[in-house]
Amino acid sequence: MTLPITAFYASLLALCYLYISVSVISVRRRRQISLGNGGDTELLRLTRVHGNFNEYVPLTLILLAALETITNVHWVLHLGACSLLFGRLLHAYGLRHHEGASWQRLAGMALTFLSLLFLACTNLFMIHYMVL
């Protein structure tokens, strides 16, 4: 079984992750900080962008892949995946460019949580629906 929708969004998210990683490395090299954040607020924010991405994307992609194996309703898959993608982009932008709260961080986390909730509930519904 192929998972083209999951592969598409995983690839876009991988490109985002590479950009975030290169941003962290760039600041580390420029400021000569090899471990930790050295008290640098920009590096602290960037490492949180990086870490936050790592905390939410893998589980949500697993949910997307699981759902893609049990349904061919493409709009449902795209809805969950787009919510994750735009949520992560907004959150990363907000965290990188603003200290403290920002509408981008709030919207980004809301979209990420909605994606997790939507994909998890849809998986449970589909599993229940398929069993009955």
TrEMBL record:
<keyword id="KW-0812">Transmembrane</keyword>
<dbReference type="GO" id="GO:0016020">
    <property type="term" value="C:membrane"/>
</dbReference>
<feature type="transmembrane region" description="Helical">
    <location>
        <begin position="106"/>
        <end position="131"/>
    </location>
</feature>
<dbReference type="Pfam" id="PF01124">
    <property type="entry name" value="MAPEG"/>
</dbReference>
<protein>
    <submittedName>
        <fullName>Glutathione S-transferase</fullName>
    </submittedName>
</protein>
<keyword id="KW-0472">Membrane</keyword>
<keyword id="KW-0808">Transferase</keyword>
<dbReference type="GO" id="GO:0016740">
    <property type="term" value="F:transferase activity"/>
</dbReference>
<dbReference type="InterPro" id="IPR023352">
    <property type="entry name" value="MAPEG-like_dom_sf"/>
</dbReference>
<feature type="transmembrane region" description="Helical">
    <location>
        <begin position="6"/>
        <end position="27"/>
    </location>
</feature>
<feature type="transmembrane region" description="Helical">
    <location>
        <begin position="76"/>
        <end position="94"/>
    </location>
</feature>
<keyword id="KW-1133">Transmembrane helix</keyword>
<dbReference type="InterPro" id="IPR001129">
    <property type="entry name" value="Membr-assoc_MAPEG"/>
</dbReference>
